[in-house]
Amino acid sequence: MISTSSTVVQRRVPAMKRPDEKKQPLVNKISNKLNERKGPIFKRLLGPFLYRYLCYGTYIFWFITGILVLRKTKNATTAVVYVKHHGDSVSLESIENSPEFNDLIRLIDKEFDRPPAFLLLNQYALNMTFNFLCNTKIFPGVHERLIFVTLDSTARDVMAEYWPNIRQLYWPTPSLYKPFSFAEGPYQTIYLLRSNLAVSLLKRGKSFWMMQQDTFWRKNLFDMNLEDQYDFDALFDQIGHDDQSQRAEWVNGANFFVHANNYTLEFFEALSAKIAHWYTPDMGIMIHQCHTWGRPTCKYITHKVAHSWEWMYTEQRDPPHIMQLDCETDGGSKLQELAKFGFYFTKPNGRTCDLDAVRSAQLRMEQGKVEVGPTRQSWGRLQFRVYWWLVDYILSIPFFGPYLKPYLPMLGYVLMLTM
């Protein structure tokens, strides 16, 4: 039997190429070109070298900001805890129930025919206080209106020795014995004391001035008899360059007068309650209450009468009667900084008055020749100028800025990260 086999030969048919496969190399080239052009816009604009340093700068900025936020959080917590821990020593109850305060009320009733002006003092502010007293010594009747709340025995005794005719309320407060600076716990505590003292006076029906020693008097503020006006409940100094400034009608809080009535009593009771628990400037609270409460009626001393240190950085026209010079974050160096501007009015011993220096400072202000060159720019003042510039910019934003005006100052401590 013959068997046969057949071989089936299969011819390989080349696979048909898809129409787009012929174009694939060209597509790849285009894709590669596009990928080369991809990347952040700043990298394409600046180039890889500058872009790398931009990234490094951004990382460093946020790292430093994070450190400042942590530092600010620690400082805020420490300050609030300090006020809560030492608040009893400056409480309303401790003031009202003290024989010293009752003696003070009798003194005011007996010897004051005009509202008194209160200033607070510990031993570390003695040099600044002597500077202020030498400045105001040339104005008749000013010292007779002053009452110093002395917070330690050194301040009490030195004042009694050199200025025996100036009245005192001795209020020993161990929590305020040491030097302190801006936004610290003692800084808040002393303003809580001031607010509680205001409440105590208002409850007794006493109108009053509150003042600070870091103020230069070119003219006698008391000669204006501002306390005789009754179209306001409280009269505050203000910050900003002039009445058209974005920060006009923001309370400065250094020198102000208060009429005694139920509205101002409620105002300062609320102020005390907030300072005792919040990490916020007392002037920020006063600004908020003045702008959002119907009463009391807050009025503001015109910039031509009372100005802040910012006047020195204007064209120095229309010199004010008084100029508050608190633009330093370090209380220990404040007087040395003021001396750079020519506002130092004692002899080298720090106790004897130099009245010629007072008259010289008056003349420089009247002539608009207070020197504010870069060599006189302290770190504290530079920080404030930058922050005020930012605030002015924010407040100038349409709709958004005016809405924020009553609230932004309450965030002052928090937003000032470098302080």
From TrEMBL:
Does Protein transport count among this protein's keywords? no
Q: Domain Nucleotide-diphospho-sugar transferase: where?
A: 142-338
Q: Which InterPro entries match?
A: Nucl-diP-sugar_transferase (IPR005069)
Q: What is the recorded name of this protein?
A: Nucleotide-diphospho-sugar transferase domain-containing protein
Identify the taxonomic lineage of the organism of origin.
Eukaryota, Metazoa, Ecdysozoa, Nematoda, Chromadorea
Task: Give the start-end ranges of region Disordered.
Answer: 1-21
Q: Which UniProt key words apply to this protein? A: Membrane, Transmembrane, Transmembrane helix
Q: Which residues cross the membrane?
A: 50-70, 386-404
